[in-house]
Amino acid sequence: MKPDRKTAIIIGMLLIFSFIFGVYSSVPALERPDYLETLPQIETQVLVATIFQAAMAVVYVSITVLVYPLLETYNKKLAVGYFGFRIIGAGFLFVGIASLLLLLSLSQSFATSSQANTSYFEIIAEMLRQGRDILNHIGMILPWSIGGVILYYCFFHMRLIPRWLSIWGMIGSFFTLLATLLLMLNIIQLVSPFYFILNAPIAFCEMILAIMLIVRGFHSIEIKTNENEVRI
Description:
mainly alpha; single chain; about 75% helix; elongated
């Protein structure tokens, strides 16, 4: 097995893991109006979600590190831009873990507090909940989707994957970027069909990419750079 084939398989597997970890890092109870009362009852689920979110961030960093050398052979500046945006996005995921743990701690204190202090806990909890949403769905997704545009743009010119998939990836990344901007401007809600529709294209694209990398690997082609010709 050639090193590049191994790299393709590893990236494909990591993409699949990112989907799995993303599902298990969610805490649906936070969307309920009584989440402060509910969180102490599902403490184990919340702690598991934090572990999966940390694992997802590690996976994202790993994918970025593996892809960077491939993009560098085409255009170093774009590769650095991709690397920077993706690392920033992964960093916000790590920070989001703290918000969830603070929410859990606050909910446990709320459960033992007197009724006179409930408004104080509710205000702080809502700030933390909204802060977590901002970190995970704006702070993380905004730079991540910009990195996605760079990634699929480079793939399109390098022809490491089918061009139709590169175009799909660029369009899907633009849609995700649009969804994030609309969310940031409070035009759409996080839990809404429109937000899901805008994010669905890139999700399907990356699942297809993952399967393709595992089964077929990257295309083997020659890329002309400003300095020399590199075979990938």
